Amino acid sequence: MPTPEPAAVATELRNAMGKLTRRVKHEDRIPLGQVSVLGTLDRDGAMTTSDLAADQRVRPQSMARAVGLLMDQGLVVRRAHPTDGRKSLVELSPAGRTALEAERGRRAGWLAQAIELELSEEEREVLARSTVLLERLAAR
What we know:
By secondary structure, this protein is mainly α. Helices cover 70% and strands 7% of the residues. It has helices at 6-25, 32-44, 49-56, 60-72, 94-118, 121-139, and strands at 76-80, 88-92.
């Protein structure tokens, strides 16, 4: 079988990943943008709203609204910046950490079940090996 052209593989991969992402979103209880902010705070620790906006590639005003919604839900809290009194840091609250872990569990649980039910052992091995390649592409 001839090696497929990179452009064709890219199109098929993008389509498949888009479908998979949309399907996994059906398991979500928290909107994707909010989960992304919670995930960033979990991975990177407390940040200013401006730093969160830069990380998420949104305007600071949009991030301020998102942080406000998360605060209203008790998922994040603000605290004083340790070195700059003009700034405050946003961090996960215990409820935010619990909600994020539950959200991740729902997503991973659905996907693990789909992998188990839909793929043969050989296909699971191929998929496991391909995750390294996907990570490499994502890091580019």
